[in-house]
Specification:
Elements (H helix, E strand, L loop, with lengths): L3 E5 L4 E5 L5 E2 L6 E5 L11 E3 L5 E2 L4 E4 L8 E3 L3 E3 L3 E6 L5 H10 L1 H5 L14 H4 L1 E5 L2 H39 L21 E4 L2 E4 L3 E4 L4 E4 L14 E6 L15 E5 L1 H7 L6 E4 L1 E2 L7 E3 L8 E2 L3 E6 L6 H9 L1 H10 L1 E3 L2 E3 L2 H5 L2 E4 L2 H41 L15
Parallel strand pairs: 4-9, 16-21
Antiparallel strand pairs: 1-11, 2-10, 3-5, 4-5, 6-9, 7-8, 7-10, 12-13, 14-25, 15-22, 16-17, 18-20, 18-22, 19-24, 23-24
Length: about 425
């Protein structure tokens, strides 16, 4: 097993913080990529002048020194270092890739030691208080980083596929909710190609065969129970209930289910049925009206007053079609324009939800639209699950390899023939 050493970070690297320089959104003569907080997570921070600048090469490790995510690190970047970023140049004993992974693993450790009353920053004595553990053998360091780089590549490839299928889904939903499907399962020709197949409505152009109806005319909408911990009804029973946190955009998060004691009459009144569509009363602008279909896995289960229950007439409006419509541009636009808004938050009431306009094709066409979107959703769920597994695997490997708990095998050089 390779011998391991422990040294203060300041004995293994030199620190050089970036300087303020002129920046530009476009690359200009004498400008290079600007390496700020965004660059450390794969974004483009723009470009910066090289005059009096601190420049980083692909062999330097960069650390965000100031800001909410101070301690964040990046590697293999070239350009001009931001004034909020510090360049760490290794002194030779520790390879830059190994240092990058070591610092990445200790991000939370650094965050917990930040200082500053305004903008938080990395502790100024980080070089003294942080101890770096590393194999003395450079080949062992390289072997460790090769393993971690391999899993990073797998994560990047999975993220690229998630982005690809997310774009596919967005394009598909736009087409499905503006053009719909013909009886043979094909998209209708676009309005530009066949204007006679479309009609203008209050929410824009829709296929001629579609009706535009308010949600309340095709469903029963009900608010949930108001929580009141001060009183407990006689002969009460304990039942699980759904909170806003449980109802996400297109899925349910049931990892933490809370219970409440209510009367048996309240259970009967607020109990959810399989196929009920759950929609949140309020939240962030981009999550307003988010919801999903209740699968009926927990029975009985009720819902609190900030979660609306929409029980559709299924022979007219299918629950999953309604959920997907609410995720489309039509749904998002309606909620944003009709909601009551405050700083960073918005809300809707039952009157607005009852008036919510829905483009309604035949139930057969609704079913076909559901199948298309569900297929892409299943692919995205599989990829997200794969990404989660890789991240868990990476976390375990970083612990095992960067502490020396699990040794790596480095081939010994063969003896020369005499």
């Amino acid at each position: 097993m390779s011998k391991w050493l422990s040294k203060p970070l300041g004995k293994t690297v030199t620190f050089q913080k970036g300087r303020k320089v002129e920046t530009s959104a476009e690359e200009l003569p004498g400008y290079l990529r600007y390496l700020g907080a965004g660059s450390l997570v794969g974004k483009n921070d723009g470009y910066a002048s090289t005059v009096n600048a601190v420049r980083a090469t692909s062999k330097d490790v960069l650390m965000l020194w100031d800001g909410e995510r101070s301690g964040l690190v990046g590697y293999n970047l070239e350009g001009v270092v931001s004034s909020t970023v510090s360049k760490l140049a290794t002194l030779g004993e520790v390879t830059a890739p190994y240092l990058y992974y070591f610092l990445s693993r200790n991000f939370e450790w650094i965050q917990n030691r930040r200082t500053g009353t305004g903008v938080p920053h990395v502790p100024k004595d980080l070089g003294r208080i942080m101890i770096v553990n590393f194999p003395k053998c450079e080949d062992t360091q390289k072997q460790i980083t090769t393993i971690l780089q391999t899993i990073d590549e797998a994560i990047e490839q999975t993220e690229a596929l998630i982005e690809k299928y997310s774009l596919v889904k967005a394009g598909m939903m736009h087409d499905l909710f503006t053009r719909g499907l013909t009886p043979d399962g094909k998209l209708r020709p676009s309005r530009e190609e066949a204007p006679e197949l479309y009609k203008e409505t209050l929410i824009g152009w829709l296929p001629l065969e579609w009706d535009l109806k308010p949600l309340g005319s095709m469903s029963k909408i009900a608010s949930g129970i108001t929580l009141n911990s001060k009183s407990e009804p006689a002969q009460s029973v304990s039942v699980p209930y759904l909170r806003v946190a449980n109802v996400q955009d297109g899925y349910l998060d049931l990892a933490e289910m809370k219970e409440i004691r209510v009367s048996k009459e309240a259970v009967a009144r607020y109990a959810l049925q399989e196929g009920d569509v759950l929609m949140n009363e309020g939240g962030d602008f981009d999550k307003l009206g988010r919801g999903t279909v209740w699968p009926g896995d927990i029975d009985p289960c009720i819902h609190q007053n900030h979660v609306f229950r929409v029980r559709t007439e299924k022979q007219i409006l299918r629950p999953y079609f309604l959920t997907f419509w609410s995720q489309s541009n039509h749904g998002k636009k309606y909620f944003l324009l009709s909601s009551k808004q405050s700083t960073n938050l918005a809300s809707i009431n039952s009157k607005q939800l009852n008036a919510y306009p829905i483009g309604v094709p035949t139930t057969d066409e609704q079913s076909e639209i559901e199948i298309r979107i569900t297929s892409v959703n299943s692919k995205l769920e599989t990829l997200e699950h794969e990404k989660h597994k890789l991240l868990v695997q990476k976390s375990g490997l970083m612990h095992d390899l960067l502490t020396g708990e699990v040794p790596v095998n480095v081939a010994e050089p063969e003896a020369a023939n005499v």
